[in-house]
Amino acid sequence: MSPGEVHYKVGWRAAGHHPGHHPSRQQGGGLHFQHHVPLADAPDPRRFDVRASLRDPFERIQVRVYRQTSAIPVWVVADLSASMAYAGTCAKTAVLADLVAGLGYSAYRTGDRFGFVGCAERPLDDWLMPSTMNRAGALDLAARLRGLVPHGRGADGLATAAGLLGARRALVFLVSDFHLPLELVERTLLGLALHDVVPVVLWERSEYAELPRFGLARVRDAESGRSRLLFMRPALHRRIAAAYAARRERLATLFARHGRLPLYLERGFDADEVTHYFFG
Amino acid sequence: MLDLEHPAALLLLPLALVPLIVHGQSTVVHAAVDLLPEDGLSRAIDAGLRLLGALAVAAMVLGIGGLYRAEQRVERIGQGAQDVLLIDSSGSMDSLFAVGNDQRGRAAVWGTYTSKGQVARRLLAEYAARRPQDTFALFLFSGNPIPVLPLTAKQDLVQAAIAAGAIERGLASTDLANGLIRSLQFFEGKPFTGSRIVMLVSDGAAHLTVPQQDRIKYLLEKYRVSLYWLYLRTQFSPGLFADVDAGTAEQVVPEQAVHAFFSGMGLPYRAFSAENPAALKEAIAEVDALQNLPMRYEDVIPRRDLSAWCYGAGLALLLVLLGARTCEVQRW
Asked: What distance in Å separates the CA atoms of residue A20 and residue A111, rounded to the nearest whole number?
C-alpha cells in the first residue's frame, strides 16, 4: 500500500537551483516570464522576441527571460515527548508515522528533499534524518516511529531544532500535540521564523469529547507523572470541552500571528485532509 | 478511659499514613493533565477517600490493639428505698405451692408443678420491676446466707440475679435466723438515706432460738429496718393466719411461731400471703408510703471491649472504599 500522497504548495519563491515544482527566484527553463534582456546578456537566440526588439529605442535584440521552478526542502519537526504516547483510538506516534511516510513519499514525488527532526528535551540524534532525496528514508523512519514508545519529559528541543534545518527557506511541518507551554511554542515559532511553518496539531477526540461517562478517574500525566483524581460527570465533561476549546482558540491566535493556521489531525492521518489544508 | 489490650499494636499506626501518601487507584494516562480543569468536587472526593483509607487503617489497628473502655466507678444519686431481698432457697421451698397444684399428689415429680420457690421468684421479679427507683440487694439463704448482689439500681442486674436462683432444687436445711441476721448486718456502716426494707420471701419452716430472736430484734432496731414477709403457704398447710392451738402449730405450722415473734416485736413488720393476688400490690403500696431520701451510691460501669466496634468501623470504611473502587474508570 502506498502512503497517501499529499499535494502542497507554498506562497513564496524558492531560492534553490535544483529544479522542482515550486515557484522560484532562479532564472531558467520555466514557463514563468520574467522580463526581457538584450541578447548579449542572455545569449539564447531561441528566446528571441520580435516585438520587444522592434519596440526597443536602442534597437538592440531582446530575448525573453523565464523563471524556472525549484525544489524546496520539506522538514518534519516532531515532538517526541511522552505525551505523544497517548493512545485513544490510535496512537499519536502512529499518526506521526503515517504523516511522515505520506509527506516523505509526496516530497519524493514532487521532487523535494525531505528531512526529519525528532525532539524531546533536546533534538534527538537517533531521530534526526538529514534532508535527503532518498524515498526509502522516510518510509524507514516511519516504520521505526510506529514502534516508538516516547519517554521524553518535555519538548524543549523544539525550540532549538531550527538550527538543524539549514539556512534555506523550507516548508516545515511542526508536529506536536501542543500540550506545551505557550511560551515554548512561541519560542519555537520564532526560531523557525525563516521557514514556512505548518503547525500540525495531533489531538484525539477521546481527550476532550468522548470521555468516560461517569466515575472516578485518576488521570496521570504522561510527562510529569503527576496524577489527579477527577470525578467524571456531565458538568465536568462540559468544562473539559470548554478548556480544550479555549486552548484551541489560543493556539490559533498564536499560530496566526506567525503566519499560518494550525492543521488539526484528530482522526489519524488523511492525505486529502492535508492537501485540503493547502488548496482548500 | 479508653485503653488498649496490646499497646504494641500502635506500632502499626503509622500505616494509616500510607493512604494519605499513596492513592492506590488504577490510573489512566492523559496527554495533558494540566489542561483538564481544576475541579473542587473531585479534589474533595480525593481527600475524602484518602482520609477514609487512613481512618480504616487506624480503626483496624485499634481493633488489633484491643481497644476497650476501662471499668469505671461513678457516683449515682438514687431516690427510693433500699431493699434487701432475702430469698429462702431451702429444700422446703421446692414443695408445692398452695395455689394452682390441685391435681397433684404430695410428692409430685420435680418440674411438673409450681413450687414455692418459683412463685417467690416470680413475685420478687414483679416487685423489683414495679419499683425501678429503688436499690436492691439480694441474699439467698438455706444453711448459710449467700450474698448474691450488693445494692444496685440496675433492673436487669436485679432481674438476672433473681432468675439465677431458680435453676434447680434448693439445699437441705433452713437457717432463717442466720440469713436474716446476715442480711441485716448488710446495713452496717451504711448511711441512712432512705427507708430500709428487708423483704423476706420464705415459707418460714424454721425455729428461732431466743438468742437469735434477741439479735434479730436488736439489729432491726439498730438499723431501723422494716421487715416484710412474703409468705408462701405449702399445699395443705393451714397457713400463717389459721387458728391452730400452740401444740399443733409447733408440729404443723412452725411459721406461726415465727410470725408471732415478728408481730410481737413492736417494730414495723407486715406479712403478706402470696396466695392473695392483691398481696403484691399491698406490699408495694406499703413501701411507697415509707419516707425516702436521696441516696448516694457508687456504681460500677464494667469494662467494655470496643475492638469489635473498631473492626466494624474499619469494615464500613472499607466498604465505602470498595464502592469507590468499583466506580473507578479503567479506560479513558
From this structure: 6
Hey, is the C-beta of B43 within 8 angstroms of any chain A C-beta? yes
Mutate to test the interface with A, among B20, B26, B39, B51 (most CBs of A within 10 A): B39
pTM above 0.90, yes or no: no
DSSP B166-205: TSS--BS---HHHHHHHHHHTTTT----B-EEEEEEE---
Banded model confidence at residue A251, pLDDT cuts 50, 70, 90: very high
Q: What integer is the mean pLDDT of B106-111? A: 64
My answer on whether B184 and B238 are in the same domain is yes
* In chain B, residues 46-75 whose CB comes closer than 8 Å to chain A: 46, 49
Q: Tell me: pLDDT of B72 over 90.
A: no
Total number of domains constituting chain A? 2
User: Residue B12's domain spans which residues?
Assistant: 2-29+38-71+302-326
In a domain, A12, yes or no: no
Distance from CA of B27 to the nearest CA of A (A): 5
Q: Tell me, what CATH number does B151's domain have?
A: 3.40.50.410
User: Domain span at residue A56?
Assistant: 19-70
In a domain, A216, yes or no: no
Nearest to B194 by CA among B281, B138, B135, B137: B135
CB contact under 8 A, B33 and A204: no
Same domain as B132, residue B18:
no
Give buried/exposed letters for B194-233 (b at 16+ CB in 10 A, else e): bbbbbbbbbbbbbebeeebbebbbebbeebebbbbbbbbb
A89 and A44, same structural domain? no
Buried b / exposed e across A153-191, counting CB within 10 Å, b at 16+? ebbbbbbebbebbbeebbbbbbbbbbbbeeebbebbbeb
- Both B6 and B91 in one domain: the answer is no
d(C-alpha B95, C-alpha B71), whole Å: 42
Closest residue in chain B to residue A82, using alpha carbons only: B31
Q: Using CA of residue B169, residue B171, residue B174, residue B176, what is the dihedral sign?
A: negative
pLDDT in tens, A49-63: 999 999 999 999 999
Q: Facing residues of A200 across strands?
A: A175, A263
- Residues in chain A within 8 Å Cβ distance of B35: 179, 243-244, 247
DSSP codes joined into one string, A32-83: EEEEEEETTTS--GGGB-HHHHHH-TT-PPEEEEEEEEE--EEEEEEE-BGG
β partners of residue A56: none
* Nearest-Cα residue of chain B relative to residue A230: B42
Calpha distance A204→A219 (Å, rounded): 16
**Angstrom distance (rounded) from CA B253 to CA B244:** 9
A80 & A35 share domain: no
